[in-house]
Amino acid sequence: MFYEGPEEVSRTGPTGPRIPLRRSLGPTGPKIPPGTQSGEGTLSIGGGLVLMFVGVIVDAAGLFLDFIYIGFVLNPLLLTPLAWLIFGVVLHHNGVSMLSGKRAVAGWLTLVAEFAPGLGALLPGWFAYALFLTAAPRVAALVRSIMS
């Protein structure tokens, strides 16, 4: 109906206007920078606090469910997979790989502790895993700076 000129046509795509994304963001979240393809970045303090909060909630819910004798069924079927997914999403959005290096070993140890009957109720596994993910890289950097 109205002629918009070539400028307007070139700025719109077939599905609507083109929205420029920042170079570090993809449509599903942040991209891992080219220098750290292994995902060996550090977790932000905010992301660590979110994971610690989720860990406390999941561990408290597991303890409560074990106390009323249904945790042996619901812990491995509901709480552990849900916590694993939340941890994976938060780590991915912070550009940190969940399954590489020491984080993978700590993650698998957390899963083994959570699936072991009775042991998952006694140990705050998810909180400890979140604390490890948040504090370990910072402590290692602090020790390296002190030693050098």
UniProtKB/TrEMBL annotation:
Domain of life per record: Bacteria
Entry keyword Transmembrane: yes
Annotated TM spans: 41-61, 67-91
Keywords from the named record: Membrane, Transmembrane, Transmembrane helix
Region span, Disordered: 1-37
Protein's name in the database: Uncharacterized protein
Protein source organism: Candidatus Kaiserbacteria bacterium RIFCSPHIGHO2_02_FULL_55_20
